[in-house]
Amino acid sequence: MAKKAEIRNCVRRLRFEHGEMTQQELAELVRCTRQTIIALEQGKYVPSFGLAFRIARVFRRSIEDVFEYAE
Amino acid sequence: VAFVVLFFSRGGPEAFVRQKARIAMTAVLFGAGYVAQLVIFYLTRLRPWGRSVAWDERDDGIARHANGVAFIVALIYVFVVSIGLWEVYHDREMVPVGWMWFLAYTSTFLGMFTHAMATLILDARGGGHGEEG
Question: Which of A36, B18, B33, B70 has its CA 20 to 30 A from that of B5?
Fold first, then answer.
C-alpha cells in the first residue's frame, strides 16, 4: 500500500464549500490534471509550492488553511 | 516475443547476421512498435483539443522516477547479459556478433517496458512529492 504523505490538505472539503466544485473544474483552474487532484485529495501526492499556492488562491485562503504539516 | 523467435529460430545468433531478411523484419517489427507507441502517446496525453490539462508536474515527477528505474534496470540487464556471454564464450575467445543485435534490441525493449511498468505503478501510488527532483 502507498505510504501516505505527511502533508494533509482539506481540498475536498473546500471544493464542496465552494459550490460543490468538481475535481475537473478545480484542475482546470489550477492548471493540472484531474488525476493530480484525486491523488492530492487521497493524500497520495504532495503538490509543489506553485500548485499549492494556486489551489489556495482559488479558494481565497492562505496556504496554511489548505495544507497542514502533520508531525 | 516475435524478435526472440526471429532471433533464435534457424541458426540463432550466428545465422541471424547473415540473413538480411531477418534483420529487416526485426527493424520493421520494432519500428512499428515505436510508431504505435507514439500514436498512443499523442492520442492519450498530447492531444491538442479540449480545455483540460493533459500533462502536469505530477506526470513530470512520475516520468523522472520511471526514467531512473528504467535506466538502472537496463544497466543491470546489459551487465548480466555481457557477463553471461563472456561465461559461455570465454573458452573460444570470441562471441558471435549476432549477439550484439540481441543485446541492442532487448536492452531497448527492457528499458521501455520497465519505464512503462514503473509509470503505471508510480501513477497508481499517487506520484509522491511535487517538490522532488
Answer: B70
